[in-house]
Amino acid sequence: MNKKNHTTPVKITLSPWKLTLPGKILAICICILPFLTRSICITLSDAETKAYFLSDSVQTDFEQLCREIILFFIAIIAVIWFCYERWKLRPCRTFPVTKITIVTFILLGIYLIIGLLSSILSEYTAQTWFGIYMLYEGYVALVAYVIIFASAWYWIDREEVVQFVKKCLTILGIVIGILAIAEQFGMHYYNNIIVHWLGNLNGEVGTGETSVLTFGNSDYLGMYCAMLLPIVVSQINLRSHFKNIFFTATSAVLLAYTLLSTKVMNAIIFGFSMTILLLIIWIIRSNWVRTAKILVTSTVVIAFFAGCTGFLVSRTGSTIQEKMEHLWVGIEQTDTFQLLSMDIEKDKIIFQNADTEWIIAMENESFDENNLRFYCDGNEVKYNIKGDTFYFYESALSNCYVQFLDEEQQILVNMGYPTAIQANWNNGSWNVVGTGGTLLTSIPKVSQSKSLQQCYTFLNGRVFVWANTFSLLKNCILLGNGPATTIFYLNQNDLPALLNIFGTYVLYNKPHCWYLQIAQDTGIISLICILGVLTVFFVYGVHICFGKKHKWSFFRTGLLIGIGTYCLTALLNDSMIYHAPMFWFLLGLGLRQMMIADQQIEKTKK
Length: 606
Known about the structure:
Low-confidence stretches: 1-13
Shape: elongated
Radius of gyration: 28 Å
Helix content: 40-55%
Largest sheet: 7 strands, antiparallel
């Protein structure tokens, strides 16, 4: 007797467009995110107002916060669509689970859990979720980044979606280049009447010497272009239609121009060097006419050195050495005292540079100019008084003078910097006015090492802020201080360092290094998790791109190198809402592309 088949038939509800639509929409959203703007009024807390030393507790933001909110909604919609697709559509999309993906998502899960605990247990919990004025990328953004990564990995699994992403990146490069050219002619994106209306903006944004576009400052735009340049170049296919070659090459040229116009040297060096490396690999690995490839590579190399030469010409200084010093060190310090440290000992203020110790002392408790004494390397210094100002005959103090303000019981110590050190005489002892008007009875030092202090100005002050952040990490081994809380913890009153770097007092609100930013915000354990994710990706990517079993792909190699470029520039710059979403999107796309290459090998074996 034959048994009837009582299996319930599966209703096929899945349409082809539903397979490709999520990845395409995600690509569009990530590409246009940096150009979305909306004025948002923010009421700052007392802690935030004090941290930023703002006169008004109400501020208007039109860049970062609106983008973080939009990114958050993109992530929510991605999760909703994923659930709808898994539960309602049949047959389900293949869920590509491998050892690589399991390790990656476990590490990212630990990173998010530790970040959540760091946010909840932070002294500034309210500030950690969406960040604070001028320093966003709170915990909500970190979650959104991981969702964007997972969405790109999950949805960009079909060749038609990959081709669509390539077109989006090509158009993005052209748009960025056109905006950069327009900005150099004084036409800033934010000043466009349509953008003004859509964003509810008031006033106009000025244009400077460097291209900034919508990325907050040139550093973030430089990171973005440096990451995209090798990826767009890797989309050039000399066998495709001339129109495609033309638009892709145009996009690459405009990205290169924009990168140069940012004048961010680390991004320029990393971006162009990695692109040249990609082109050299292209020549070696593919079978195309070698002469044509050498010609293309030579053109890029020549353009790179021509651009760098033009960039150096634009820097301050009469010699190459002076231009490079201005580039890496920052403002010129030859006409200053070059202060390294400063101490207050009741009736004495002690200033030191590499060679000289200068002491300003008050002889008794009465604030009188006749009671002022000046010592240089232990010897009393002769001076000349003109009006209320003391000038010195000592050659080591040739750039220094002291202004005596009797009514305010105050002296202004000018050492050749744009900002003079303000010292008040109060009840028989000195105190110094620090950043934001804070009265200091001692000057907090980031480091006691004189050799390190002399390096503070290098890389435009990054050495100082790195040392500043390192000094805090002993408390961030398991949990961090919470996302977006760096400004509350950094030493903002190491006045000698600030004067040498900027010539004035400036607030540091970021570590200027993505890896230190992670360690400070969510802890060293979470940093190890992110480094683990990147290590897995690069080891796996190198295996796929250069392994003997796999067919070489220009685009996959471009993704590997572009993501690597971002990780290099991240050594010198922070993760911000301006550029980080694109990085996480491309990281997810890159991982899936590597997996597809692996799957193709497995199919051929079968």
